[in-house]
Structure formats: structure tokens, C-alpha cells
Amino acid sequence: MVVILITIILIGISIPIISRIRAQGQASACKSNLKTIASALEMKSIDYGGKYPANLSSLSPLYLKIIPTCPSAGADTYTNGYTSASNPNTYTIWCNGNYHSSLGYAANMPQYISGEGLIEEAANITASIPTPTPTTTAPGKGKKP
Q1: CA atoms within 13 A on the CB side of 1
Q2: Within a domain: residue 37?
Q3: Which residues pair with 94 in a beta bridge?
Q4: For the chain, how many structural domains are there in total?
Q5: Less Cβ around it within 10 Å: N or C end of the chain?
Q6: What is the span of the domain harbouring residue 66?
Q7: pLDDT tens digits, one per residue of 99-140
Q8: 3-state SS of 50-117?
Q9: Is position 138 within any domain?
């Protein structure tokens, strides 16, 4: 009886731990998928004069065999989570949805932004946008030549 009780307690303790480890593995695979897609986008950009494609479907089959699926969603969450711009040539790709919320990720995270790389937290996006700082000084307070 005591052995059964201890076994039940250990199982009860280990289930949340195992679930979290599984979610971390899925999030890690999702980030790896984003990096793989980003590499394919860069290769295509090199072949097309620095321009990124308008959609991810143009990457397959030459640059990617298939568009990967997010392991947490079990589906392609990247095709609808892709935007590109032509002036300047940039792109952003993200896991479209709220599939990693159990790890504290905001919706549509993680993301990969050209020129910045992998962004794992929504706070990093606003932190990466520079805020202008005032450069004016009071009369007579500036540097002397």
C-alpha cells in the first residue's frame, strides 16, 4: 500500500516536469525551423539580387524540400507568419499562433527578423526599435570648438 502511494506521488510530480520538458523541446525545434527558413530566404535573396520572396511557397523545392511544421502546432504556422518588404529589403517570420504559451511566450513568438536574428520574447522586439534621443542643448551649454 505504501509503495503504491509513493509511486502515485512520484508520477504526480513527474507529469508536469515531463510536460514542460516536452514543450521546451518543441519550442527549440520551432526556433530551429525559423533559422532553417531564414537560411533558405537568404540563399534565395542572393540568387535574386538581394530581394526576398513575397511568400514562402517560392522556397520549395529548390531552397527547402518542404516548409517545416511547428511541432507544437502539428501544422505549418510559418507561411501565414511571414512578411517581406522591398525598401529596404527585409523580412520577418514567426510561429503564427499561441502555441508556445505554456513556456511564457507571447502570441506569434518566437520570431526571426532579417538583420536581427532570432527573437524569443516580445519585449526584445520593442527594445530593438531605437528611440530617438533629444540632441538639442540649451544656449551656451554646448561644446566649445
Answers
A1: 0
A2: yes
A3: 111
A4: 1
A5: C
A6: 14-128
A7: 888 888 888 889 898 888 888 775 544 333 333 333 344 444
A8: CCCCCCHHHHCCCCCCCCCCECCCCECCCHHHEEEEECCEEEEEECCCCCCHHHCCCCCCCEEECCCE
A9: no
| Residue closest to 105 by CA, chosen among 126, 91, 119 | 119
Other C-beta atoms lying within 10 Å of the C-beta of residue 72? 23
- Comparing CA positions, the residue from 101, 100, 55 lying closest to residue 80 is 55
How far apart CA 33 and CA 25 sit, in angstroms, is 12
**34: in domain:** yes
Closest CA to 115 of 88, 79, 95: 88
What's the DSSP call for residue 132? P
- What's the pTM? 0.70
Residue type, 142: G
